Amino acid sequence: MIAAKPISLMPFKVSDWKDHHAVEHKGAKGSSIIRTQDFGKFKVRQIDYSANYEADHWCDKGHIAFCVEGELSIHLTNGRQYVLSKGMSFEVEDNEVSHKVYSENGARLFVVDGDFLDLKR
User: Fold this and answer.
1) Does domain 22-116 fall into CATH 1.10.3720.10?
2) Residue-wise DSSP of 26-89
3) To bridge 102 with a disulfide, which of 12, 34, 73, 98 should be the other Cys (CB 3.0-4.6 Å)?
């Protein structure tokens, strides 16, 4: 029997996020600063939301998001709302429920997303 070769998703890497290119995205209100590492099948991002931030769209993509600092309100199209504060996370697969984020005082999230969250494929 031939042993299967392990699949490598990424090499070992230490990241200093302040060294990654920052891109500003304007929201409906406020803005976010996003630093991204793209590994092909998935990406890792650090997102800093300004005070009084409101996303300019509903998102259908899946995410694994961890709140590093601050507080973020997550609104879902089904009417539910959640508050994510430091040390909390949310996880959702692609096309599960659309979500939109708001931050009154600003927040920093660490987010992982990619094809692996499309569980219906």
Assistant:
1) no
2) E-SBSEEEEEEEE-SSEEEEEEEEEEEEE-SS-B-S-EEEEEEEEEEEEEETTS-EEEEETT-E
3) 73
Strand partners, 19: none
Q: Look up residue 74 and give its amino acid.
A: I
Identify the residue with better confidence: 82 or 118. 82
Contact 42, 115 (CB under 8 A): yes
Q: What are phi and psi of 18, to 5 degrees?
A: -70, -20
Half-sphere exposure of 28 (CA within 13 A, CB side): 9
Q: What are the φ and ψ backbone dihedral angles of 115, each rounded to 5 degrees?
A: -55, -30
Residue ranges per structural domain of the chain: 22-116
Which pLDDT score, from 0 to 100, does residue 94 have? 85
Q: What is the mean pLDDT of residues 40-66?
A: 94
